[in-house]
Amino acid sequence: YYALWSHQAKTPLAAIQLLLQEEHPDRNALEQSVFQAQQYVDMALQYQRLNDSANDLLLRRCVLEEIVKQAVKEVSILFIHKKIRLVLGSLQEEVLTDSKWLQFVISQLLTNAVKYTSSGSVFVWYEGTTLYIRDTGIGIRQEDLPQIFEWGYTGYNGRLDKRSTGVGLALVKQVMEMLGNKMEIRSVLGE
Asked: Which pTM value belongs to this model?
């Protein structure tokens, strides 16, 4: 994991160095590279915390909208850079969770939604007992769906993108299990 992480973290840092050597660096590209590096560092820290989650778990009643908005704020640079529209539906529900861990999950899912959406929108809403996140991205091949939560599995889309580590969704699954929540992904290729 750490060898993979080190390799992935080097990419945005190298991009930052190149951009800073230019006379007029591209601010958007710099912001995206910094965001990627921060996200890889956060992912490594979350991975380490998972091993000692009993000491880092604080379950309490939280307003879902506050958690979602924090996650959106964290990944907003991605939405802005790609000009992807975010549509927030009803999120006023109170949920029993650890807000920090749930925010990590939502941030990861929003990052993936934007990463694999070239144009269109990402929708987030709460209905019944379920938080939904839907995008208008490229979709996931049916044969990849059973394995997307496995460590290191990147699938067809991850191989095309060449920036996928196969770590994000594996961490998301572990966190959701730790929080006592179910998670399901449905996808139609091209949608």
From this structure: 0.77
